[in-house]
Amino acid sequence: MGRGRVQLKRIENKINRQVTFSKRRSGLLKKAHEISVLCDAEVALIVFSTKGKLFEYSTDSCMEKILERYERYSYAERRLVANDNQSNGNWTLEHAKLKARIEVLQKNHRHFMGEDLDSLSLKELQNIEQQLDSALKHIRARKNQLMHESISELQKKDKALQEQNNMLAKKIKEKEKAQAQNPQIEQQQNSHVIESSPLLLPQPFQSLNMSCLYPTHDTGDDDSAANHDRSGVLLPPWMLRHHLGD
User: Fold this and answer.
1) What does R_g of the chain's alpha carbons equal in angstroms?
2) pTM of the predicted structure, to 2 decimals
3) What is the mean pLDDT of residues 86-93?
4) Longest C-alpha distance within the chain, in Å?
5) Helix-strand-coil percent breakdown of the chain, rounded to 5?
6) 126 alpha-carbon distance from chain centroid
7) What do you get for the CA distance between the two ends of the chain, in Å?
8) Phi, psi angles (nearest 5°) of residue 40
9) Contacts for 31-36 with beta carbons within 8 Å, 24 or more apart?
10) What are the CA-CA distances from residue 29 to residues 9, 10, 52, 57, 224 (Å)?
11) What is the pLDDT of residues 19-31, one digit of tens each?
């Protein structure tokens, strides 16, 4: 008959327990060595007996390096799990807070708009009224400030336009004054030129007594009167030269 299945429970006999521990320990160390060689794995095995005696096995790398690697991995894993749990808890709490705040804000907004006022007490209504009065004061103060700033800006622009207008009016007066003085200066210059150039003046025509050209004869009173009238005629100089040449 073959070996029966061993029942897994504490061996009460101390000697049998010690023998079993020695055999199983040797087999466990052998299996650890086999898996490290066959699978190229880093294996660290630590066993403490009931008397506190240490039995260990590690692959080519020392036990300290394997344990340090285990500590880093387990620490990172624990931090990741803790962070995930904490993050999930924080997000859940934050979501609840934001949701409650949104509900409060929506409720206050409805109250400020004059809605859902039936459920409010007198004190709550007075509180809302005070908040609205305070908001209206701030709004009016800001509006008055903007109006004053706008008026001040318009006054500055008006002053600048007035200064510009005065400057333009001054320039126009100076230009008109200069134009009024120019004809007088030109007239004085023309009179000075005329006085300094007498040869340019037209010469008066020399008078010619026609009596010297046309001798009169005593033919009577009428003829003498006509001759007298004819003798008073004046001729220009070119006609005089023409008659003298003839």
Assistant:
1) 68
2) 0.33
3) 69
4) 212
5) 70, 5, 25
6) 43
7) 195
8) 50, 50
9) 32/57, 33/57
10) 22, 21, 18, 7, 187
11) 998 999 999 989 9
Q: Are 28 and 44 in contact (CB under 8 A)?
A: no
Q: Report DSSP state, residue 92.
A: H
Q: What is the pLDDT of residues 51-88, one digit of tens each?
A: 888 888 888 767 888 888 888 877 777 666 666 666 66
Give, as one character, the DSSP assignment of residue 199: G
Rounded distance, CA 240 to CA 163, Å? 74
- What is the sign of the dihedral through the CA atoms of 107, 112, 113 and 116? positive
Residue in the block written with tokens 């010297």:
212
**10: Cβ–Cβ under 8 A, 6 or more apart, which residues?**
17
Whether the pLDDT of residue 38 is over 60: the answer is yes
Note whether 57 and 32 are within 8 A (CB): yes
Q: Cα separation of 53 and 74, whole Å?
A: 26
